[in-house]
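Entry 14. Two folds queued back to back today. First construct below, sequence then structure tokens.
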Amino acid sequence: MRRGWLLTIAVIAGCYGDPQRAFLAPSIDAALVDSAPVPDAPDAPPEPDARICTTLATSPDAVNLVNESGAAPTAMGGALVDGTYRLESLHGYGGPVTSSYKSTWKFTGNQWELALRQAGATDDQLQSGTMVVNTSGLITMTPTCGGGNAGGFSYTFNTSDGTLDYFVGGGGTTGMYHHIPVP
């Protein structure tokens, strides 16, 4: 038996030259490696464009904020119907504010998409994500594509006659964004 083992070790060592490499894969002639064609690496998939979160476009005309006296309407909630909505009017309560916007929202199940352009901006902000709708008046949104609001955001809202009003407040002012369905 010992004689067989010695013969095997001697053959392996002789075939591969260096006894320390006896159990490694066979060596390859470097000249053959250098002259062998190297296949092209497959093209890597293109990086996704961060702006392609939706194919929506903003509403065609900018809507100017109209300052209102008194308190903002109370958010009552309602059923948010799947569909596409565009900004029709914007009302400010609690102080003089000037601004204009264009926006289009699309809601499908628990998914949302948004195309928004604020006054002075040259490009639309495109975002999409998931949402939880509490029919008593709160929409909680989590962006999954597009910039801003990385931690999510919430709006109080009303739905009636197929329209959507949502409210944004801060610093003593409240904005009511009135959206109508797009046929």
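Second construct, same run, same settings:
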Amino acid sequence: MRPGSTATATHSRSRIVADLPETTRQNHCEGDGSRTFGLTALVTLACIVLAHRAPEQLALLMSALHHRHVRVYVHLDRRIPSDPFSEALEAAGSRGVVLLPRYDGRWGGVGIVDAALSGLTQGVADGCDYFILLSGQDFPLRPMGEIVEFVREAGSRSYVDHFALPAPHWRFGGRDRTDFYTYDLLGRRETCIPRGEDVSFLNRRGLILNELLRMRTALKPARRFPPYVRPFGGSQWWNLSHAAADYILGFLGEHRDYRRYHEHTILPDEMFFQSILLGTEFPGRQGVVNDAHRFAIWPDRASHPRTLTTSDLPAIVKSEKLFARKFDASVDSTVLAELAARVGARTTVMADAAKRD
């Protein structure tokens, strides 16, 4: 499937509205295994999914996200072949999935921001009312009918983890993100630590590499965060109202240098959106709730959350969050099967998709 295409033909938003009888809009959505809990107005939720591995697991996620009031936009990392994903989605019967233009989604790079923005832009253009960013290794903890009702009740509120910078729990307080230069080097993102800063955590290879990066940076101007924004950090994953999405896209149209600045930021996805929503004059910033509604377990000093297993199920369920991450079916498929049954997803999806391999 080409970027911008769908796994099967999709309806326009006006067609979707026309297809819904009045009783369905106000009471239940039939055929998706979940209720809409008394919707009084049509709400279209955009789920933007960033995927880079595990096609069969992505197919299971698509099954869990299926709902008449949900549009799904999938970004496949440009560095991976797309055919296994297209085949898995087709075999699993995933319908209406929009494949976005592909960007380099390497860890720590601005391509991840570009991918999220692509989904946000497409969702706004398609008339969606609310926007949730997910990983391909996420999974919902509630039936989608409940999540649709949650975003309907959220209205103009957005749910985004955030904190002002500098922050003591980030190395250098976050200055390595706002003031230091980061480069793509041999397939990795490497940050130059200027002279006078603490480098005691670097090993011998790191010290040599940092000296090379200092030479590369020597003639560059001092790096400073754009003066029209106050820096904020937080989790990459967000839940945005239409007002927030509109503001972000308008802001970027007015300040084109903001995205260019982040080409030299390490992990820009953990501050790009927070800074726009909390660090500018966004009229709705008081409605940005400091909770992304994600369950995850972070080991000490880890750069990634721990893979969740069946032993984590009691804590996952007790959390009452909207989504959890991260899961890996090659490590523990049972936990995904248990959650799929809870939310009404088709538990045979991964097996159906795997048969195509």
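Quick look at the second one. The chain has two domains: 13-163+231-354, 180-217. The two ends are 17 Å apart (CA to CA).
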